[in-house]
Amino acid sequence: MSQVDIKLCEDAMTKFMLEAGALALEKQDGIETMYKGGTDALTEADLAISKMAQKLPYLELDSVALVDEESIGGKTPVDIFGSSEYQWVVDPIDGTAGYAMGRFLWGIFIALYKNGQPLMAGMCMPAIGQLLLCTEGGAAHVNIATGESEPVRLKKHQMTSQIFVESDRFKGRDWEAESAVEGVWANSPESSAQGTYSVFTGQSAGMTYTKNHSFWDVAVAMALAKHTDFEMKSFTTGEVLDHVTFEHFQNNWKLKDNWLLSHPENYKVIKEAIF
């Protein structure tokens, strides 16, 4: 579709992250927490960034849709993937509970997909001054203050299952009983932003995305994996998640499977440690 200028979208994506990050930092001190659905944290910063997302390029076109955690309403994956060619995917603040408590490892997610395939994505971590950016030029770390960019360089971590299940900290755990989501590793980060960032800074061997995660939780990680040697892989079937369709999601946008973001050579040992 010739109307969509990819360079314009890249510029708009970066501008959105920087402006949304500045807004979130400004509002963080003393912000009040609301709740949606009884348990999920929500702040006025989430809602303000959601409104900003509604001004992203080309949303006036029927072929371009917005999948935004705070404004998706009752639209299902079938609705979106069945009627749009391009999908902007936004999580205004991933890790809202930590954000509201004044913590640092929360992030703003944005991605552009075409027919379920990631074209570009970014994750802004304003409190630590970093962007993770994925465009046609590759995946990069960007210093927000200076604008300096450095390519993401990843390699396989040396691991054994002992790290996970034989240390004193985890010894004797009943994984099935203690895990919130069907036996998946209980010691998970407080936000997808923290887990994704840890993987792409080389501080973690992998990050699990469970059936508790939504499209906006995984959209950036998929795009980053596309431009590195890492991949997202199903714990059930071994499928690599390099594109999405409505069949990957429940109607509420939650994943239908559990996935691991890691180097392919680490997949087996992490899976065995978790299950």
Any descriptors?
275 residues, alpha+beta, Fructose-1,6-Bisphosphatase, Chain A, domain 1, D-Maltodextrin-Binding Protein, domain 2, 2 domains, globular
Radius of gyration: 18 Å
The strand count comes to 12
Q: What structural class do the secondary elements suggest?
A: alpha+beta
**How large is the count of helical segments?**
9
CATH-defined topology of the largest domain:
Fructose-1,6-Bisphosphatase, Chain A, domain 1
What topology does this entry show?
Blueprint: H1 6-28, E1 34-36, E2 40-42, H2 44-53, E3 64-68, H3 77-83, E4 86-94, H4 96-100, E5 107-114, E6 117-125, E7 130-135, E8 138-143, E9 149-151, H5 162-165, H6 175-178, H7 192-200, E10 206-209, H8 215-226, E11 231-234, E12 259-262, H9 267-274
Parallel strand pairs: 3-4
Antiparallel strand pairs: 1-2, 4-5, 5-6, 6-7, 7-8, 8-9, 10-12, 11-12
Helix pairs in contact: 1-2, 7-8
Explained architecture:
Helices cover 30% and strands 23% of the residues. A hairpin with a 2-residue loop joins β7 (130-135) and β8 (138-143). It has two domains: 6-151, Fructose-1,6-Bisphosphatase, subunit A, domain 1 (Fructose-1,6-Bisphosphatase, Chain A, domain 1, 2-Layer Sandwich), CATH 3.30.540; 162-274, D-Maltodextrin-Binding Protein, domain 2, CATH 3.40.190.80. The chain is built from nine helices and twelve strands. It is globular. The longest helix has 23 residues, at 6-28. The strands form three sheets. It has a seven-stranded mixed beta sheet with strand order 3-4-5-6-7-8-9, with helices on both faces. Strands 10-12-11 form a three-stranded antiparallel beta sheet, with helices on both faces. With 275 residues, it is of the alpha+beta class.
